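Quick bug: HAD family hydrolase output formatted oddly.
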Amino acid sequence: MNVSKSKAFFFDLDNTLFDYEASFKQASLFAFKSIFYPVLKKPVNAEKWFDTYKIYCDLYWPAYEDKTVTREQYQRNRLVSSLISFNIQPINMNQIDYFRKLCEEKIPSFVIPYPWIKEIIDLLYNRGFVAGIISNGGSALQRKKLSMLGLSFSQNNIFISSELSFAKPSLEIFEYVKSRIHAASFYYIGDSFSFDIHPAVTAGWTGIWWNPSKKLLAQTNPFIYNCCSENELRSVVKKCIE
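Here's what came back:
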């Protein structure tokens, strides 16, 4: 294909290709039951514990996003707070760290691609366009998720932050990908406006925001598509490849 007419579509991974929250819940419940059930002094409803745990995940997220705490501190804080809420004490830091490790190991076991994703990727390949991944996270974990998803991406088109010297929301990762991929137009599909869409558009890409929670867009931008349903996402991708 003539480079002047070629297009490249890159995807975020978690909550874009699959429902990360559902996978995270199943992995968290598995780790909680495996580690804490044997030592509980009285029964705890795991589903109720997870609801509380998720509240702390959201509560402490801004501090991690602002880099006030490290990823490790964020993960420890949310779990410790949830255990204290259910009076699961004393707190054993070895158990806390093992929970983090076990949960991460198990998440790939529960990943299932959104049913429309393979259709979209096949459509891109059938038109001769580039399809790839730009994701933050640890290399081994993210690649294991991709393997479990069973989606076909060229290794040359997979960019993971831990394998590079920069991560989203830095513009550098989008600029780096543009320098490595031969295409005239670049599109990024992601679920986070601040981590995915805003930096991509600032770096000269077109952003396709997967926004099923229907968050409000502060202002319209001709280089941002807001997709609140799978049908809208399909339609936008088809429009972009014309």
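Actually, after a second look the formatting is fine. The chain has a mean pLDDT of 95. Closing.
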